[in-house]
Design goal:
alpha/beta, about 180 residues, Ser_O-AcTrfase, transferase
Length: about 180
């Protein structure tokens, strides 16, 4: 179960009990609603059952967005072990793909941008650290183990195991995310 992996990541960071984390961490609240309705969205149940459940899902997601400031649409693809370090201001496009064991800080936007062949949404690899205020936009790829620096605007591909920073983001280091994840 992917939600168990999410809880495990939180436990690794805080050394707190699963119960305390589930009761107090807004990121886990948003992930629970996402995981539940994403399972329905990806299921093979008949449309006559699935469609009304997903309508309910939209209301739950809007409710969780209002109380946490985290937008995780059920249509997004998010790997296990996501860690949302701080709540609020996190917006993810429904078409986004995020790999396993990534960290997202407050104020991160992952969304649609670009024109022509560059229009689209990002694909984020595994073990990617996205610092506070980062914007990752357009039909780009962020490689495994990358670090996106705070307040960076990422609109081009990011190589695996590198750190990018700035507006627009440029590679500043060949250090990967192992110290952050």
């Amino acid at each position: 179960m992917r939600y168990k992996k999410d809880i495990q990541r939180y436990k690794e960071y805080s050394k707190s009990s699963a119960l305390l984390l589930v009761l107090t961490q807004q990121g886990l609240w948003a992930l629970f609603v996402y995981r539940f309705f994403n399972a329905i969205y990806r299921s093979t149940m008949p449309k006559i059952v699935k469609a009304p459940l997903l309508v309910v899902g939209v209301f739950f997601q809007k409710w969780i967005e209002v109380i946490t400031g985290i937008t995780l649409p059920y249509a997004a693809t998010i790997g296990e072990g996501l860690y949302i370090g701080h709540y609020s201001g996190i917006i993810i496009s429904p078409e986004t793909v995020i790999g396993k064991h990534c960290n997202i800080s407050q104020g991160v936007t992952i969304g649609v941008s670009g024109r022509g062949a560059h229009r689209g949404v990002p694909t984020i690899g595994n073990r990617v650290y996205m610092a506070a205020g980062a914007v990752i936009a357009g039909g780009i790829n962020v490689g495994d183990g990358a670090v996106i620096g705070a307040n960076s605007l990422v609109i081009t591909d990011v190589k695996e195991g590198t750190t990018v920073l700035g507006v627009p983001a440029k590679m500043v280091s060949a250090k990967d995310s192992k110290d952050y994840i």
